[in-house]
Design goal:
heterodimer; A: Arc Repressor Mutant, subunit A; 5 helices; elongated; B: mainly alpha
C-alpha cells in the first residue's frame, strides 16, 4: 500500500475525476474524457495543462488519417500521487471508524 | 454521467463520510472506464443473427441466396467483431496486468471453441443422420451458445478488469466491502 499523502493539486473535484479516470486507463482519448466528465474542450484543456505542468499527465498528439487525435495518460508520478491520495482517504475513513463516527457513512458509500 | 453532481473534495480535515463519498466517486469513474471496454448486451444477439443466416443460406442450396447472404453475413460478423475491440474504438484502453489480459484472451478463445464445437458438432451429427437443415440447426445451436456465454464472458471480463484496476490504484473496498 502507498504512503498516505493528501495531494492539493489532484484533490480539486474536476482534476480528481480526470485522474481517477486516467488511473484506470493506459490512455484515454481527449473526447472520451470530455464526454464522460461532461466538460467543455477549454475546461478540460485547462485542467490537463495544469496536470501536465505538474508532471502528472502525459499528453500525446497525433493523427488518425487526417483527423487530429489527442490522448492523455497518467505518468508514473501522477499514478503515485493518486495512489497516495487514495491511501490518505482510506486513512481518514479508518481513523473515523476507530472514533466510531464514520462507520455508517462508509457502509453507505459501498451500496 | 457528466451531469451528475460532483462531490466536494475531502480535505485533510475531512470527515470519514466525506472521504468515503470521494472514494465512491473514484470507483464510479473507474467503472466508467471498464464499461468502455465492454460490449452492450444486444451485441451477442447481433452477432448470433448472421451466424444463423449463414447456416440457413448454406441449407437453401440456392446459389443466388448463397452468393448474397453468405458474404453479407461474414461482412456483418467482421464489422461487429471489429467494433467489439475497444482499441479500435479509440476511446480509452483499460489498464490491466498481463496475467489478466491472458485470462481474458483464454476466456474469449474458450468461448469461440465452444460456439464452434456446438455448431459443427450439431451440424455434423444431423448431416450424418440425414436429417434436414443440418447447417441451420447447427448454426442456431452455436448462436444459442453465443448468446448465453457472451454475457457471462462480459461479466467475467468486467469483474477481472475492475479488481485489477482497483488493486493497482489501491482503491479496492476495505474489509467488509465488496466489488460489485
Amino acid at each position: 500500500m502507498s504512503t498516505a499523502r493528501f495531494d492539493e493539486l489532484i484533490h480539486a473535484p474536476t482534476r480528481l475525476e480526470i485522474v481517477s479516470l486516467l488511473a484506470a486507463a493506459q490512455w484515454a482519448d481527449f473526447r472520451y474524457i470530455r464526454d464522460e466528465l461532461g466538460l467543455s474542450d477549454s475546461a478540460l484543456s485547462k485542467q490537463l495543462s495544469t496536470l501536465e505542468s505538474a508532471g502528472y499527465v502525459e499528453i500525446r498528439k497525433g493523427f488518425v488519417g487526417k483527423r487530429p487525435r489527442t490522448s492523455a495518460s497518467l505518468s508514473a508520478a501522477g499514478r503515485q500521487a493518486f495512489e497516495q491520495h487514495v491511501a490518505a482517504l482510506q486513512q481518514i475513513i479508518a481513523r473515523s471508524q476507530r472514533n466510531g463516527d464514520a462507520a455508517p457513512a462508509s457502509r453507505r458509500s459501498e451500496r | 454521467m457528466g451531469n451528475e453532481q460532483r462531490p466536494q473534495p475531502a480535505g485533510p480535515g475531512a470527515t470519514g463520510a466525506e472521504a468515503a463519498a470521494e472514494l465512491a466517486a473514484i470507483r464510479r469513474r473507474q467503472e466508467q472506464v471498464v464499461k468502455t471496454a465492454l460490449v452492450p448486451a444486444w451485441y451477442w444477439w447481433a452477432l448470433a443473427a448472421p451466424i444463423v443466416a449463414y447456416g440457413a443460406a448454406r441449407d437453401s442450396r440456392n446459389l443466388a441466396v448463397q452468393a448474397t447472404v453468405i458474404p453479407l453475413a461474414v461482412l456483418v460478423m467482421a464489422v461487429l467483431i471489429g467494433a467489439g475491440i475497444p482499441e479500435l474504438r479509440r476511446r480509452a484502453k483499460v489498464r490491466t496486468a498481463p496475467q489478466a489480459t491472458a485470462r481474458m484472451a483464454a476466456a474469449i478463445f474458450g468461448m469461440i471453441a465452444l460456439v464452434d464445437a456446438a455448431a459443427i458438432g450439431t451440424a455434423a451429427s444431423l448431416a450424418a443422420a440425414h436429417l434436414r437443415y443440418p447447417a441451420t440447426i447447427g448454426c442456431a445451436a452455436g448462436a444459442a451458445v453465443l448468446v448465453i456465454a457472451g454475457p457471462l464472458l462480459s461479466r467475467y471480463s468486467r469483474r477481472l478488469m475492475l479488481s485489477q484496476v482497483r488493486r493497482q490504484t489501491g482503491s479496492a473496498p476495505q474489509a467488509g466491502g465488496s466489488i460489485p
